[in-house]
Amino acid sequence: MRTIEAQAIQMVDLQSQYQRLKVDIDNAMQQVIDQANFINGAQVKEFSTHLVHYLGVNHAIPCANGTDALQLALMALDLKPGDEVITSNFTFIATVEVIALLGLKPVLVDVLPDTFCLNPDLVEKAITSRTKVILPVHLFGQGADMVRLIDIAKRHHLYLIEDAAQCLGAEYITQDEASVKLGTMGDIGCTSFFPSKNLGCFGDGGACFTNDDELAKRIREIANHGSKIKYYHDRVGVNSRLDTLQAAVLNVKLPHLDDFNQRRQQAAHTYSSQLSEIKCIVCPAHHANSEHIFHQYTLRILDGKRDALKLFLQERGIPTMVYYPVPIHRQSAFVDLIDKNKKFPISDLLADEVLSLPMHTELTSDQLELIISSIKEFFNHE
Questions:
Q1: What angle do CA 18, 23, 26 make, to 5 degrees?
Q2: Cis? peptide before 324, omega within 30° of 0
Q3: Of 335 and 215, which is predicted with more confidence?
Q4: Cα–Cα distance between 65 and 268 in angstroms, integer?
């Protein structure tokens, strides 16, 4: 029984989620096929409208993927080569990749050891006369300290772009004690609909959202080859469209997003209630203002035991992942762009300690019990 349950555990179980929504998803995709309107079909506009209502923003612009969303956002700001963008050193490569691709200078800042998000004190110290943008990453499903970051951005007259690829649907309490969605507080929010995301399609997809009419206009044009009228191009742009089939899938899934997030939160509560008693484990912390929707459930494993625990679970058929094993400042691609004398002690520490457990909407109580009991078994034999 133990082996059968272990074999069924996946980091992300997309098949079971699909089976729950199969009839509606199949019907939605079949409608696109019947209409044969595969590019910019009606479902894309419908999804944009639905996303606007869900997030409470003025504009949502779907695009081809989350990396493109970040690039479109930066391109819309009309920055100049060498302008500086402050962002996290502990994140997926795409956040920093687009900065470098556009000829901008990534200025990396270390993160907080509890939330893994940008340290606002270090952000303010990193600002120079060339700084134009602060780009926080809402990592693993909860927000960076947006109250502090918004204040810093306003005082220094900087743009604020939110990388919301891992937190779609999470609520944040503002300085005025209003509840808003993460990704809607800065000048532009960016997200991804990669299949494993809390709201995922069946391929690549992404979106930008903003309350600024002019920025929305620019993003739409840039995503469409710099054109608002076909064959007339007002600026240099790119080709970044959300596929109509993917929009159809997202239209079905979006009404379930709050339920998806609640299922993740319930699984996370089970993990934390059982694992927090183990002295070598640090369970995910919650920022005081931010809801956590657990795109990943990421532990810190202390005393150098992370890799041994990972192997122990692997041998029992329980998958885990390390997000992220190499911080940006140690990536070969950025060796010539980063100040070699700058230290990132928290990022280096996290790279050696973090371990993400299976997290998705279909985790069963039996699976959770097996994962937790296996972790306890490992530490009981230490």
A1: 80
A2: yes
A3: 215
A4: 27
Using the Cα atoms of residue 147, residue 149, residue 154 and residue 160 in order, give the sign of their dihedral: negative
pTM: 0.96
Widest CA span in the chain: 69
**Domain ranges within the chain, ordered by starting residue:** 17-255, 257-380
> Which residues does residue 160 pair with via DSSP β-bridges, in sequence order?
134
How deeply is 133 buried, as exposed, middle or buried, from its count of CB atoms within 10 A (0-12, 13-18, 19+)? buried
| Helix, coil or strand: residue 171 | strand
Residue with tokens 């947006």: 146
Domain 17-255 belongs to what architecture? Answer: 3-Layer(aba) Sandwich (3.40)
Residues 112 and 264: their CA atoms lie apart, in Å, by 23
pLDDT digits (tens, 9 = 90+) for 208-244: 999 999 999 999 999 999 999 999 999 999 999 999 9
Q: Closest Cα to residue 98, out of 74, 64, 80?
A: 74
Question: How many Cα atoms are found within 13 Å in the side-chain-facing hemisphere of 5?
Answer: 14
Strand order across the 105-109 sheet: 59-63, 206-210, 188-192, 159-163, 131-135, 84-88, 105-109
Per residue in 303-312, pLDDT (tens digit) is 999 999 999 9
C-beta separation of 321 from 297 below 8 A: no
C-beta of residue 99 within 8 angstroms of C-beta of residue 85: yes
**Annotation: CATH topology of 257-380:** Aspartate Aminotransferase, domain 1 (3.90.1150)
For residue 289, the tally of other CB atoms under 10 A from its CB is: 19
Provide the sign of the torsion angle of the four alpha carbons 356, 361, 362, 368, taken in this order: positive
Task: Give the span between the Cα atoms of 238 and 98, in whole angstroms.
Answer: 13
277, 189, 202, 185: which is closest to 242 by C-alpha?
A: 202
